[in-house]
Amino acid sequence: MKKYFLIIVGLLSFVLGSLGAILPILPTTPFLLLAGFCFARSSEKFNQWLKQTKLYQFYCADYVETRTIPKNKKWKIWLNIIILMTISIFLAPIFAVKILLACLTVFISLFLFLVIPDKMSEPSTKQNEAVQSTQYKETDKHSKSDQ
Predict the structure, then answer these.
(1) Which of 27, 31, 99, 139 is 20 to 30 Å from 19 by CA-CA measure?
(2) 120: how many CB neighbours lie within 10 A of its CB?
(3) Is residue 106 in some structural domain?
(4) Mean pLDDT of residues grouped by 10 in the chain (147 residues)?
(5) 2 Cβ contact list (under 8 Å, min separation 6)
(6) From start to end residue, where is composition biased (Polar residues) (predicted)?
(7) Residue 29's domain spans which residues?
């Protein structure tokens, strides 16, 4: 019974998260994380399916796996936040709600850039070759001076 309940909650969360990707009112990431939580405790099949979706890959995969987000992805996420929150602020009929949405936007932005660590990118192959070449030259210099 618990397994089926978690699968239903996971599917509902995924649907709401998917809608949140296009509607400024619903948050995407929390619903996708809830879906992942539910599927991880109920069905390996649904859990694997969720992890393969583009939505999950874009919004959650980096953070869930490494507790970090690459800087370029942070900027993409931030751009989505700004666009959707601006639309929400513009459409909100009550001034107090506009202020709350603006404060929420600032809080989310600060959290994204100041609390969540940047994922260090892997050096490219050319960078690795350059480092190895430099190390070889330094080793070569030391071995010649020892002779």
Answers:
(1) 99
(2) 10
(3) yes
(4) 94 93 79 92 95 90 84 86 88 94 91 87 52 51 54
(5) 42
(6) 122-136
(7) 1-65
